[in-house]
Amino acid sequence: MDNFEVVIVGAGVLGLAAAYRLCESPKFKNKSVLLVDSEANFGTQTSSRNSEVIHAGIYYATDSLKAKHCVEGKHLLYEHLSKFQLPHKKLGKLIVAQKGEEEALSAIKEKALRNGVDDLTEIDKEQLKKIEPEVNGSAALLSPSTGIIDSHSYMQNLLHLAESRGVTFAPYTQIESVNSTTEGFSVNATLIHANKKESYQFRCSKFVNCAGLEAQKLAGKTEGVDPALIPQIHLCKGDYFSYVGISPFSHLIYPMPEANHTGLGIHSTLDIGGQLRFGPDTEYVNTQNYAIDAQKSVAFAEAISRYFPAISAQKLQPAYSGIRPKIAGPGEIAGDFEIQDRSIHGIEGLIQLFGMESPALTASLAIGNHITALLE
Question: What are 283-299's pLDDT values in tens digits?
């Protein structure tokens, strides 16, 4: 039976970052690390279906894992992208308030300061018009450290770096059960080859659950995990629409965030190629369905028109959608990242990640460092 030092389940951006950081650690540098995913390739779900924004760390609860890892991860990410010459742009973003929202905008700035984000600048209505003539608002916050990234190039780079340092990547691998042993874990898996299935068993000393949308299911298949410690998953779908025409913006434009920070509002972002898109909205769903209702363009245009009056539904075309693995349901206060180790579940060598939604892409290298430190 094959034996590995560390097995990481889930080749999204967090699994990839964890694999890369692990193989750079002196303790695991020459140890066998296996990265598995049930899909055909890396990053096919949440990691490739988001806004591709490098967040500053503004909105998250003070002292939360989201705030800590986003602020730290932002610096690590920009450093990494520059070092390896990966596509990214530090465009900056504007959080735009309408009349009556100025006090809430000031509260956002205060929260950002508590989180260690000290580069925000307050913009009045006249300054806003000079910076972004097409944007309507009574005031705004300028975040210069917000940017955009080509998430595919970044994930491809992480996989290349990990594999070049000895990590084995195994797609088409479905984990069926994880059992505790005196030396770690015995894992039962199914390998899928050209529509044929083959059983595969292996052992490992340490096991990391980075399965994203499937993390709760995998935790339920892991022997010894108390079901009470597995947070309920709430699938929250977000649709994106592309803008037909040349972008009128030079910054990313965000409205005030939704109540309880369910989402950050239907905002405008640019991809590396300069394509303007709007989204995501928030809709709690029961299944992983990525279809987009084209008629939503009317509701999107109505929401966008608060800060971009020239928008029309005819200028919006369905682009793509994503699903966030939230651990807070409708109307509840936003959940934090949950990173569980032995101190929480009592199982040596087991790390489990739940609720890894935005800003997980920005925070990925910081989370990779966190996982590595827990395993060391």
Answer: 999 999 999 999 999 99
